[in-house]
Design a protein that fits this description.
The complex is a heterodimer of chains A (301) and B (185). Chain A is an alpha+beta fold. Chain A has eight helices and 13 strands. Chain B has a five-stranded antiparallel β-sheet. In chain B, strands 14-13-12-15-16 form a five-stranded antiparallel β-sheet, with no helix packed on it. Chain B has a four-stranded antiparallel β-sheet with strand order 2-3-4-5, with no helix packed on it. The chains are: A alpha+beta (301), B mainly beta (185).
Chain lengths: 301, 185
């Protein structure tokens, strides 16, 4: 049985308008990139849904970076993305993703944007700087807590994933030990991930064992993932190839490597920061509901 | 074999040769990480529950389960004797039958669940009828259904019944809860 909640859809509409207003007032250009594409970004644990001979996008990331190479400097996009087999109270196989990118910027620039964005949207939608989320009250006036992944794991899980990375243990401990321990009354940012979990982020110049990546948690819920973008074509190609090998070994479908994207990196991408933020989850916070299906009409169910 | 993506509430799985049913299920996926399926599983034999987590690439055994309709015949010592469609006799012991033993009666049809050809559970019809063999008389004219008193039915099972039920009455018992359901006219 599909439920429609008109009052939540009003909050949804207000949120989308507030997000657009935020970026437009800061001279970002709203872009639209293909939803159906021949080569979805190769990631070890993200599966694309086939569409004809191509795939539905799992994120607009690679196309948006090509726009940066083409000379755009501040861009944002909000739209549907699709991931196979992701269904739960925080996941729907079709979901709305917000991504924005800036050139001559890094993950710290994006972090400053994100703090402003969340405050702006809460003020526009709720008229408040506090968010009630279930039994939690999130106070946006409190400074966000930035915890390096190394410290968070040492504190809550008792080991250092930067020194000895173990992918299986990392994911399980993140869910079972680290996330439940994080404060919930303010924004919490896990920052500086092991390079093995870098995805498409660049290595830190200060510490080559960590990648310039952060994840934002609000009310204990993971909301977004940001990078200082990897711009080195050769390293990017190598990561794609390693990822393809891991997927093949796991018996997962291996998507073709996005050659036009690599060609764009070879042409030269300016240093950039970028982020993906789950719009449905942001709406869950603002509407104070615990299930993603309640903020999306006609969700998977 | 099931893959982790098949897991859902109600699915029956097998771990180390033991059948379980999933009673609670949560999907989580940390950013860029693998999917993690957290399940509360209940043993189909002992009823005990515990938590179990699976990752995207895990494979899970499918239990070989078969449901058969059997007719109860009689009790032979400690064993309960049933008959299948082909008039073959099947003997089940008291621990397999569990609480259902209170409600077995000649010619009653039950569903028996087999795991690897071994019976692991008996499902009765939802309602069975029984005659009250003993209960204290209730106050005359009291038809309240929320005031209960103890009673014993044929076969020795004890339960609480409304105050207006008398010895010799036929009642319906809900076998899922073991509780009184209604008086049979």
């Amino acid at each position: 049985m599909q439920h429609i909640y008109p009052e939540i859809l009003q909050i949804r509409s207000n949120t989308l308008q507030a997000i657009r207003g935020f970026f437009l007032s800061r001279n970002f250009v709203e872009v639209e990139t293909p939803v159906r594409l021949p080569a979805p970004a190769l990631e070890e644990f993200i599966d694309a849904i086939p569409a004809d001979d191509w795939y539905l996008r799992t994120s607009p990331e690679l196309h948006m970076k090509r726009l940066l190479v083409a000379g755009m400097s501040r861009i944002f996009q909000m739209g549907a993305c699709f991931r196979q087999g992701e269904r739960g109270h925080l996941h729907n196989s079709e979901f709305t993703l917000l991504e924005w990118y800036r050139t001559n910027a890094d993950y710290q620039t994006i972090l400053a944007d994100t703090k402003e964005l969340i405050r702006h949207v809460a003020a526009e939608v709720l008229g408040s700087t506090t968010i009630s989320f279930g039994e939690i009250t999130i106070d946006l006036n409190l400074p966000w807590l930035c915890i390096p992944v190394k410290q968070a794991f040492q504190k809550y899980a008792g080991w250092n994933p930067i020194e000895n990375f173990d992918a299986d243990r990392f994911d399980l401990d993140l869910i079972n030990k680290v996330e439940p321990g994080l404060p919930k009354n303010r924004g919490v940012v896990l920052i500086d991930y092991p390079v093995e979990a870098a995805a498409l982020s660049r290595r830190s110049a200060d510490d080559p064992e960590v990648a310039e990546r952060w994840e934002l948690y609000m009310g204990g819920m993971e909301l977004s993932n940001a990078f200082s973008e990897l711009t080195d074509a050769q390293e990017q190609r190598q990561r794609f190839e390693e990822c393809a090998a891991k997927r093949a070994k796991a018996g997962s479908e291996v998507y073709p490597i996005d050659r036009p994207f690599l060609a764009a990196l070879e042409q030269g991408m300016p240093p950039s920061g970028g982020i993906a933020l789950g719009v449905d989850r942001l709406i869950m916070l603002l509407a104070n509901v615990q299930n993603i299906q309640e903020v999306r009409p006609f969700a998977d169910g | 074999m099931f893959s982790a993506g098949d897991l859902r509430k109600g699915l029956k799985i097998e771990i180390e040769g033991h059948p379980y049913v999933i009673t609670e299920y949560t999907f989580t996926k940390p950013g860029k990480g693998q999917s993690i399926y957290t399940c509360r599983i209940k043993s189909m034999i002992t009823g005990q529950t515990h938590m179990k987590q699976y990752r995207s690439n895990d494979k899970i055994n499918k239990p070989q389960l078969e449901q058969k309709e059997l007719i109860y015949s009689y009790k032979d010592g400690d064993m309960f004797v049933f008959m299948d469609d082909n008039y073959e006799q099947i003997m089940l012991d008291e621990s397999t039958i569990g609480d259902a033993r209170f409600f077995l009666k000649e010619d009653i049809e039950v569903e028996v669940l087999f795991h690897n050809d071994k019976a692991i559970g008996v499902e009765l019809p939802i309602f069975v009828e029984r005659e009250i063999t003993h209960t204290e008389p209730g106050a005359r004219g009291n038809t309240a259904t929320n005031v209960l008193k103890p009673a014993t039915v044929a076969g020795g099972y004890e339960l609480n019944v409304p105050i207006f039920i008398n010895e010799g009455d036929m009642i319906k018992i809900d076998t899922r809860t073991g509780e009184y359901s209604e008086r049979v006219r």
